[in-house]
Amino acid sequence: MTEPQIARRFAPGDAVAVRMDTVRDPVGGHYRTPHYIRGKRGVVSQALGSYPNPELKAYGGDGLPRQPLYRVLFDQSDLWGSRYTGPAGDRLEIEIYDHWLEPA
Amino acid sequence: MTEEQKSQKGVHDIGGEPSEQAIDRSEHRLSDWELKTDVLMKLMQEKRHIVVDENRRMIESLPKDMYEGLVYYERWAESIERLLIEKGMLTRAEIEAKVTELDARYEPEHP
Predict the structure, then answer these.
(1) Which end of chain A is less enclosed by CB atoms within 10 A, N or C?
(2) Which tens digit of pLDDT belongs to each residue from B25-62?
């Protein structure tokens, strides 16, 4: 039997923004999206398939429906502002689940 | 970011925070207790008592002072204990009693 999964919303090249929080946040504890990336805009580089949601599995759930996972690119200078002193074109690539993203 | 959102930030979520402290990149040979703690977690996963995401959630929920005061596998050991209690598989009293018993007969192999 195929496990239920959320339809993939984004494709490589799509502009996305990371949510500040999700409906799970009030529970606290476990999340897979670090704070330094929240509210930032990036570009999807790769769709990695769908996986049981680890933020639900962390509380004993089965993590279903499966959440699409993406690799997303962010400009380092967008993340760190004036604190960033590395090469101008340097980017961060990070894996983010679908429910943390919105179209940008 | 509002104060409320900052307060939800986990103790582990320190990416991007300024620090004067240099990162310690040195490796060390794992002690027996560290290897055993790793094996214990592997067994718990194999027997489907604990999933890795629960371990992460419990470690990230430890009080800040405790989290920062413990080394890597001490956090795992603390987390395993708390998860087994949460799941009703062991009680705090049972664990304490066993620790007392083991302490009494413990003889270091390499004093």
Answers:
(1) N
(2) 999 899 999 999 999 999 999 999 999 999 999 999 99
The answer as to whether B19 is a domain residue is no
Distance from CA of B104 to the nearest CA of A (A): 36
> How many contacts does A have with B, using Cβ atoms within 8 A?
51
- Is A36 in Cβ contact with B57 (below 8 Å)? no
How far is it, in rounded angstroms, from Cα A75 to Cα A68?
23
Say if residues A38 and A20 touch (Cβ distance below 8 Å): yes
- pTM of whole model > 0.80? yes
Provide the CATH number for the domain around residue B100. 1.10.472.20
**Distance in angstroms (rounded) separating the CA atoms of residues A31 and A36:** 13
Domain A15-96: which CATH number of 2.60.40.1930, 3.20.20.70, 2.30.30.50, 2.40.100.20: 2.30.30.50
A80 with B16: Cβ contact below 8 A: yes
> Which residue in A54, A16, A40, A38 sits closest to B5, CA to CA?
A38
**Domain encompassing residue B47:** 30-111
Domain count, chain B: 1
